[in-house]
Amino acid sequence: MDPGNNTGMSKFLLLGFSEDPELQPLIFGLFLSMYLITLFGNLLLILAVSSDSHLHTPMYFFLVNLSFADTCFTSTTIPKMLRNIQTQSKVITYEGCLSQMFFFIFFSGLDVFLLTVMAYDRFVAICHPLQYLVIMNPWLCGLLVLVTWGISFLHSLLETLMLLQLSFCIEVEIPHFFCELNQMIQLACSDTFLNNMVMYFSAMLLGGAPLAGILYSYGKIVSSISGISSAQGKYKAFSTCTSHLSVVSLFYCTSLGVYLSSAATQSSHSGAVASVMYTVVTPMLNPFIYSLRNKDIKRALIRFSGMAALKG
């Protein structure tokens, strides 16, 4: 079709996972359950940490921000998909598609940077324990979080403004359950060279640099732990990192798996299915990973539950 000047009238269709009517109730129930578990788990973690003064430390301050980002990250895609299934409509407006893509990039970037900041926090705690409270003071913690929000916002704004320059055909079918940047660029009817360059450069810079920072931090942590003489001391030091390391591994492994599987199969549908791992499953599991592997969080949850029961 001739793209012309029809971007404002473009009809975007989110194809989702399957067009089989018999599978729609199953998909709806599955994703509604995962979404509710994600909301409940992350909000409960935020409330438990906020209500316990013993957990008002840098590590848990970053964890609360991560839980908030995960909640918003999932909320940018799943509610729209559930609504489309319920109304038996695949349509999303051009403005709605841009908004969804903006917030998806914003909160996914925020996740990456917060995981990097949390790795730095663990590095300071283990490698410089005597100076931990001096280095990780409230001013620095607030600044680190502010910088992560700022960089994520500017990156998302840049990608969205770049996409505004593209023209789309009158009817655009997106083989995904949300408006994903790469899919949007591929489906544009105008030249996308500059968009692809910005997207790949941003992925290398804003994806590679945080990963390098995490690997560097854990390299120093392993080196510091290996210098501890007692086995009990080594276990105690490493146990403070296991939850964060599990979350980092889950996030990066699922994200990498999505792009490797998409590149191997060349199938947009399989990419949509694989992307469920880091868009839905990872945010859902994060609060449980921190709760099950952290005694302080367990105690805070029990205390919060008791307080809620007494008030009730």
How would you explain this protein's 3D organization?
The chain has helices spanning 24-51, 58-75, 78-87, 94-127, 132-135, 138-164, 181-186, 193-226, 231-239, 242-265, 268-292, 295-311; strands at residues 11-14, 91-92, 171-174. It is mostly helical and 312 residues long. It has one domain: Up-down Bundle (Rhopdopsin 7-helix transmembrane proteins). Strands 2-1-3 form a three-stranded mixed beta sheet. The chain starts with 10 loop residues before the first strand and ends with a helix. 34% of the residues are buried.
Write out key terms for the chains shown.
312 residues; mainly alpha; Rhopdopsin 7-helix transmembrane proteins; 3 strands; disordered N terminus
Short précis:
This protein has helices at residues 24-51, 58-75, 78-87, 94-127, 132-135, 138-164, 181-186, 193-226, 231-239, 242-265, 268-292, 295-311, and strands at residues 11-14, 91-92, 171-174. By secondary structure, it is mainly α.
Largest sheet: 3 strands, mixed
Q: How many structurally independent domains?
A: 1
Number of strands: 3
| Tally of individual helices | 12
Radius of gyration: 21 Å
- The proportion of residues forming helix, as a percent range, comes to over 70%
Task: Report the CATH topology name.
Answer: Rhopdopsin 7-helix transmembrane proteins
Q: Give the overall average pLDDT.
A: 84
- Spell out the helices and strands N to C: EHHHEHHHEHHHHHH
- CATH class, named Mainly Alpha
The CATH superfamily name is Rhodopsin 7-helix transmembrane proteins
